[in-house]
Amino acid sequence: MIREYQPQDLKRIMAIWLQGNEQAHNFIRPDFFKQNSAIVEMLIPMSTVYVQDIDGVKGFIGLTENYISGLFVDPHFRRKGTGKALIEKAKQRHNELLVHVYKKNNDAIAFFLSQNFEIVSESINEETNESEWLLRCNVEHNVRIGKCAL
């Protein structure tokens, strides 16, 4: 079941966030995410967050307007539809979705491309000095054909 974030979810969300970042971004110095976790913990309640709750939080998506500020899934629930379900929830709420993905994060890039996102630009992340892509998905509601149609 996908539902809105509740304050009691924060500890589990932060554990999934930290583990996911450390696993997916082994090209970034290991302490970077730990150093930024307090900021993220403060920002989560200010964002629109949906969680996949199957006997506890198994994944989440954080949105700031139509920008995906985070999509993380517990390693045991990856490749089982959790990420796709969270993206579908975001597509129900927005006509366009944007997300930055590190160019070296091949799994995330493949996932977003499989969800009909397109690469629109490349830049350097100022905090990590790593190359990242901006991906966009145009959502066409109530239409059967077209990119990202619901």
From TrEMBL:
Q: State the InterPro entries in the record.
A: Acyl_CoA_acyltransferase, GNAT_dom
Keyword Cytoplasm found? no
Q: Which residues form the N-acetyltransferase domain?
A: 1-140
Quote the CDD domains the UniProt record gives: NAT_SF
The protein's name is GNAT family N-acetyltransferase
Q: Which UniProt keywords apply?
A: Acyltransferase, Transferase
Q: Which domain of life is it from?
A: Bacteria
**Per the record's keyword annotation, is Transferase included, yes or no?**
yes
Instruction: Give the Gene Ontology MF terms in alphabetical order.
Output: acyltransferase activity, transferring groups other than amino-acyl groups
